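quick one: JD2 bound model?
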Amino acid sequence: MRADVVTIFPAYLEPLRLSLVGRAQERGTLEVRTHDLRAWTSDVHRTVDDAPYGGGPGMVMRPEPWDAALSEIAASDPARRPRVVVPTPAGRPFSQRHAEELAQEPWLVFCCGRYEGIDARVIETWADDEISIGDYVLAGGEVATLVILEAVARLLPGVLGNSASAADDSFSDGLLEAPAYTRPQVWRGVEVPAVLRSGDHAAVARWRRAQALRRTVARRPDLVAQAELSDADRAVLDA
Ligand SMILES: N#Cc1c(-c2ccc3ccn(Cc4ccccn4)c3c2)n[nH]c1N
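yep, here:
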C-alpha cells in the first residue's frame, strides 16, 4: 500500500516511522510519502488560508494549493487513482469495518486540514471519504490520519506478528475485548482468574466471550445491538 499525506505540518507525521507502521514501511508493505502543502503555494508568504465567505471565526484553507497538490500526487501514478481520505469533524465515524475497507486499497491519499477546514469545493472535487475519529474537535487532520493509518496498517498482510492476529481484535467480532492478565499470578493480593490458568482452552474461550459480552453491555450497548449473538451468548446476558 502507498499512502500520501498532505499537511502544513509534515513533522506531525514523524511517528509513522516508529513501531508497527515504521516496521511495515521497512518491510515495504506500506510506503508513506508526506508532502508539505505550502510547496504548492505561489505567493511569497506561502499562504494556504483566507477569511471565510459569510463571515464567522477563523480561516478556511484555500482551494488552489490543495487542487495543485492533489493533481500532482494523482498524476504521479497515472495508471491508478488513489482513494482520497479527508479527516473532518463532519465525517463518517471511523470504525474497524472502515479500517478493513481502507486496508483493501492499494493507494490512499490523506488531506490534513487545519484552521476551520478545507474549502468545500476541494472536498466535493477530490474526497472519496470524509472520516471523523470521534465526537470531539481537534485542531487539524494530522492526529486523525495517524489513527486511521495505524488502524489500517495493522491489518496489512504480515504486519502483525505471528503471536497476534487482527481477527482476535476488539470489534472484529463486534464486541469489546475481554480483560487480559499476565504474570505475576497474584499482584496486590488480586489473583488471575483460575480459568485462565486451567489449560482448558474451550473454557478460556467461553470465559473471555462472557466477559466481552458483559463489558460491552455495560459500556457500549450500541455494539451489542449490532453483534451476532448465539444462544449461549443470550444465556450469559440473561444470567
Ligand atoms: N477526523 C477528525 C476530527 C477533527 C478534525 C479533522 C480535521 C480538521 C481540520 C481542521 N480542523 C479543526 C476544526 C475545528 C472546527 C471545525 C472544523 N475543523 C479539524 C478537525 N476534529 N475532530 C475529529 N474527530
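The mean pLDDT is 95.
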